[in-house]
């Protein structure tokens, strides 16, 4: 399902700094977060997934506690952050790290403007590419360690296809002349 795209699991600050060097060169990245809200009274971000055209990254904020390089990238207006249904992630980043995302494109907003039948990520990926995402770990306690291979695979899928979905949605948005409205709504969402 992931082809030969490399996966980088980041569990310490040195690996995060190295990944950040790559990520700062990107024009856009796909981002998703997993939290532990269903399992803990005080919820927190428990996993961060990022994809570029060439690499997939899983950042473990439970083990890698200084997320400075990642937070810088998320705030940068120079890099488009492609996310799906990002409202919870935006609130989580503000709550846990005090940051506001710069330059967001939310694929859920785009799909809504385009009148897509299925708005969930799995439905959009299936309708657009014919790929079925396994959502078995949607309610998993992401703060538990060690992360098993099936957990990593599930989390990776949430961003792996997002940049391709972004490409398809952009074509449709330009044809309908809805791109400015989607960008405006995405920007508005970052202030939630």
What would a concise description of this structure say?
By secondary structure, the protein is of the alpha/beta class. Helices cover 44% and strands 16% of the residues. It contains 8 helices and 6 strands.
**Quick one: how many beta strands?**
6
End-to-end span in angstroms? Answer: 34 Å
How many helical stretches? 8
Structural class: alpha/beta
Give the SSE order as H and E letters: EHEEEHEHEHHHHH
- The helicity comes to 40-55%
Q: How are the strands ordered across the major sheet?
A: 1-4-3-2-5-6
Outline: globular
Low-pLDDT sequence parts: none
Beta fraction: 15-25%
Q: Quote the average pLDDT.
A: 94
Sheet with the most strands, sense and barrel status: 6 strands, mixed
Task: Please describe what this structure looks like.
The protein contains 8 helices and 6 strands, in the order E-H-E-E-E-H-E-H-E-H-H-H-H-H. The protein is of the alpha/beta class. Strands 1-4-3-2-5-6 form a 6-stranded mixed beta sheet, sandwiched between helices. A hairpin with a 4-residue loop joins strand 3 and strand 4 (56-59). Helix 4 runs parallel beside helix 7 (162-176).
């Amino acid at each position: 399902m992931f082809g030969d795209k490399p996966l980088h699991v980041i569990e310490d600050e040195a690996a995060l700094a190295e990944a950040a060097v790559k990520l700062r060169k990107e024009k856009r990245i796909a981002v998703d977060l997993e939290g532990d809200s269903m399992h803990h009274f005080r919820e927190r971000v428990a996993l961060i997934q990022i994809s570029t055209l060439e690499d997939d990254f899983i950042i473990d904020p439970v083990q890698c506690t200084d997320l400075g390089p990642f937070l810088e990238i998320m705030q940068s207006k120079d890099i488009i952050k492609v996310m799906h249904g990002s409202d919870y992630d935006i609130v989580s980043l503000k709550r846990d790290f005090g940051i506001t995302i710069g330059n967001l494109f939310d694929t859920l907003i785009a799909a809504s403007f385009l009148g897509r039948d299925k708005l969930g990520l799995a439905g959009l990926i299936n309708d657009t590419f014919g790929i079925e995402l396994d959502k078995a770990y949607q309610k998993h306690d992401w703060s538990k360690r060690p992360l098993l291979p099936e957990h990593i695979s599930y989390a990776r899928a949430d961003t792996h296809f997002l940049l391709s979905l972004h490409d398809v949605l952009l074509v449709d948005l330009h044809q309908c002349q809805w791109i400015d409205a989607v960008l405006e709504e995405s920007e508005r969402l970052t202030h939630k």
